[in-house]
Amino acid sequence: MFGPAMAMPTVVIMVLLGAYPVLQGIYETFTNASLGGKSHFIGLSNYSSLLSDGSFGTVVWNTLLWTVVGTAAALLVSTALALLLAQPRRNAAFQLLWIVPWAMPQMTLAIIFLWLYTPLVGFLAGWAQHFGIVFPALLAQPHLALWAVLVPAVWSTYSFGMLFIHAALLGVDPQLVEAARIDGCSVFQQFRLVKLPLIGSVVRVVALLDFLWLFNQFAVIWIMTEGGPGNSTQILGSYAYYEAFMVRNVGLATTVGAVMLMLLLAFVVVFLFLARKTYGGLGVSR
Amino acid sequence: MSAQVLSAAPAVAVVLPSKRTAARARRDMVRSAGYYTLCMLVTLVVLSPVILVVGSSFKSSHSLFAVPPAVFPSSPTLASYQALFDTTPFLRNIVNSLVVGIVVSAVAVLVGTAGGYAIAREKFRGRAIIRIGSLVWYMFPPMLIMIPLYLEFSQVGLVNNDLGVGVAFLTFTIPFSVWMMTAFFQQVPYELDEAAWLDGASKWATLWRIALPIARPGMAACFVTAFMMTWGDYLYSVTLLSSGSTYTVGAGLNSLIGTVGIAYGQLLAGTVIVLVVPIGILAVGRKWFTRGLVSGALK
Asked: Where are the beta strands (DSSP E) in chain B?
């Protein structure tokens, strides 16, 4: 009984703090639960009201833009910096300095960018004024706010992937790259034709982790805009929070959470299906 | 390494110096200089949020809003820090975060080490479920855990209570530590444990005398990472805590972002304090963070 005894604390906590709240939450999607009120079973009403709610479409669209563009941007930065780090001339000090954003709590990056962006008195506005430019209120403009908020989110996302891709690049046989160079491949071709296929599986894992990270993002959005103006920066995570603690409609909030779960599962299943040839599931052994 | 391939030519060149090799050496030097300049520029951009916030946290309230805003103040002052500690219970919040974070991380490491050892070493029904379950749990939308948890906590008096926020922190530190310690024990050769059993040691003795001493660096890394996760928490702290005396640093910082106006000096000073801890940990444990982090996660 040694094994089960050792695993017991994990199982107990997993049931109490993982399975139980999730099942409770899924149950609440079928009720009209509110903060501090009685709840009744109302069937699928929460789901139908979400679907008929015009802002929900906006939120789903924002989530899609946010995660896809964010993941692409983070991957691009991660790969570019990893390639720089993997140069023969490399210096380990840069690697340490470039993972500092990973160690920074997300809320600190959000607060710093909130201050940088502040109109009139913020840091960027101050310099804009110095050069006689009016600095736009980035976070108050519906078509700009999402991208402005995405910047600190990507900032806090890229370093972890950079470490992974860097480690993978160091595993690429330099003779292959050298052979490609002698055969006349440009630096870009050396990357696209030799390095990228070899580190592809790691890049895919990084893409999955970046995606999950951005999909579950809350702190950056809530600190900078609380989802506004309007719903222009509202993604599913912040929308669930908004419904639960601003509108106090717990039933609808957990329904948003359940939709997140379904989208996440669908995405992970599709991802594992697409990646099934390169490695077995998430076990990630190269 | 391509460095070795490339350096083969200059090694010959030392014997027979020529115009061509001199040109190559010069070109190499220019390239090195270009490379380091680029790396310095990237470093400057990557660290710019930290540089700007640190510089501005030492400004007076007047110079904070000067046009153009300087990166570093000409006459640094601790006024913002003074105001932060005078007008808010931020010192108390730091203590709360430290206590809750250390206790939670210790619990997470203990549970994770036991669970990880069991999953990696023992064969029993359901261990695959625990392993996959911890990963799925970790990737779950936190909202779907947090909202029901909040309702439960409000019924048993765990809202606005540091014990409650500590329990809530277990929802992300436990799956992380179980996953990480499992990966760690899987890297430790199974033969070590086997040798102890063959010599007649019980399973408890094997764990105590063989596995735990080997696992110590893994446990330390797990503790530190779990602590950094709790220190940087925003969601649970902001939701569960509602008064200055119970705030962790996350909730404390959040309370400085008022709806009416923001006291930027205090907010930036608080942000710097919150940054010092994880960046300090990163600097001290730099070897592990640049190597162990990746190897642990990839294997």
From this structure: none
Q: Which residue has the tokens 């392993």?
A: B131
ipTM of the complex: 0.88
Domains of chain A: 18-283 (1.10.3720.10)
Q: How far is CA A188 from the centre of its chain?
A: 28
CA distances from A134 to A120, A127, A137, B69, B261 (A): 8, 10, 9, 15, 21
Q: Tell me, what's the pLDDT at B10? A: 47
Residue B54 and residue B192 in one domain: no
- Two tokens, residue B236: 């649970």
Q: Are B201 and B98 members of one domain?
A: yes
Amino acid making up residue A286: R
Residues 210-239 of A with CB under 8 A from B: 212, 215-216, 218-219, 222-223, 236-237
Judge: A10–B298 Cβ closer than 8 Å, yes or no: no
CB contact B181 to A (< 8 Å): no
Place A64 in a pLDDT band, splitting at 50, 70 and 90: very high
**What residues in B contact A284, CB-CB < 8 Å?**
298
Neighbours of B190 (CB within 10 A): 11
Instruction: Say if the Cβ atoms of B67 and A245 lie within 8 Å.
Output: no
How confident is residue B298, by pLDDT bands cut at 50, 70 and 90? very low
Q: Which domain holds residue B10?
A: 2-77
The rounded distance, in Å, linking the Cα atoms of B163 and A25 is 22
